[in-house]
Amino acid sequence: MPRRVALFFVWALIALSLAATPSAAGQSTPPASGQGNTGDQAKNNDQGKTDPQSQSQSKDAQSKADQSKPAAESNVFVLKQPEMPAQPQMAPQLRAVDLESRKKLENSTRIHLIQLLDAEFVRVRKFFPLGDKSLVIDAQGRVTPSDTSLFQQLQAKGAAAKVGDKVQITNVVFHDKSIILEINGGPKRKTKWYQHITVGVGGSGGGVTPINGDEQQATGAGFSLQFNKEIPEMTLDDLKKLLSPVLDFSMKTAAEVYTETLPPKVREAIKKHEVLVGMNREMVLAAKDRPPAKNREKDENGKEYEDWIYGAAPQDVIFVRFIGDEVTMVKVSKVGQPLIVKTEKEVDVKDGVATLAALKSANSPEEKAQHPEEPQPTRKPTLRREGEEPETPALGTGQTQTPSRREDPQWGTGGGPPQDQQPQLPKRPPE
């Protein structure tokens, strides 16, 4: 009996081992080292990786697995980073290295450029992150950082301006080897004067908090134009060309928009940089810019006037005299020519509207429409030609002169002629 029990347990163990063998045989076991089927298995694995059919089967299996997922996962939205729009690269119209042979920028030119650029509206060709001032135009005309970097900063900080936006130049600063420009208020946070004051007792101080507790954040951005040497002498057109990789100056300036509202003769004078008697200060600035020198005095009647002087001897000199806001006299002194003095009013400015003071030199229909001709007195219709006199028959040819039409009676005379014109009848002799 015990022997039978022992044989039963042996057969039970053998059955369990045989039942476990197929599942173990189905598992892939790495081949032992030195076996000959190792290369064949690696080859089969490489074919499985590069086989298009196996790849398509794996994609189908993956799509089936995605479809088998719960419907709730299909409502999940995946946020993707916005892509940077394509933008054309603008080559510089002028580089800073092309101006290195010129002399150093004069102080008067610097002030003149600031006056012309300040508050002008332009369009941008680059992305400007809010509060950023890292954009630089180097001496070779190259712009850094890249467009991709600027776009990423714009997504993180916000946009002061995007490509093509209209912006305003709010500040221009000249340094030794660079020019700093700010748009839409600049990259710095605006603070009040009292926010920079500290008060304290015994050497310890503290900041003064704002009255309203609100601090205005930065509203714009800035960039710089770099030079290898000192800033050279340049014109406004040269500076616009240097800034062309970043700013587009093709828009009309405020001076151009104002000039278009003036009469044709005044526009032509401004285009030729001439001053007409009767212009105001704004028109003179549009024609000649700001004067290098001014002189204020009083005439013999004690009336104050101001002279704007353009040029210096021995070159041409122009004196423009203002009384109030109106040009009353223009003196032009050219080398080798007699002095020209103009005092007759040519432009009449009333309530900011400019019209021509005289129509003698008006040749365009636009000027004639502004100054219509005075109505001529009407004439009675007649069949006679111009200059033809009425025919009067000569006396003594058997024709009698046609009596003239009787004049209308005067009021209060009873319908008859006046007493001094009534015919005198001969007196009747006494009987």
What profile does the largest beta sheet have?
7 strands, mixed
What is the overall shape? elongated
Record the strand order, biggest sheet.
Answer: 4-3-10-7-6-1-11
What percent of residues are in strands?
15-25%
Uncertain runs are 23-39, 41-50, 359-371
Structural features, described:
By secondary structure, the chain is of the alpha+beta class. Among the domains are: 96-191 and 216-251, no CATH class; 255-370, Beta-lactamase Inhibitory Protein, Chain:B, domain 1 (2-Layer Sandwich), CATH 3.30.1450.10. The chain contains ten helices and 18 strands. It has helices spanning 2-26, 38-50, 52-67, 107-117, 147-157, 236-242, 254-259, 264-271, 281-288, 365-370, and strands spanning 121-124, 128-129, 135-137, 143-144, 159-161, 166-174, 178-183, 198-201, 204-207, 221-226, 247-248, 293-298, 304-310, 317-323, 326-333, 340-342, 347-350, 353-356. The strands form five sheets. Strands 4-3-10-7-6-1-11 form a seven-stranded mixed β-sheet. A five-stranded antiparallel β-sheet has the order 12-13-14-15-16, with no helix packed on it. It has a two-stranded antiparallel ribbon with strand order 2-5. The protein is elongated, with a radius of gyration of 49 Å. Residues 23-39, 41-50 and 359-371 have low confidence and may be disordered.
Briefly summarize what is shown.
With 431 residues, this protein is α+β, with helices and mostly antiparallel strands. It is built from ten helices and 18 strands.
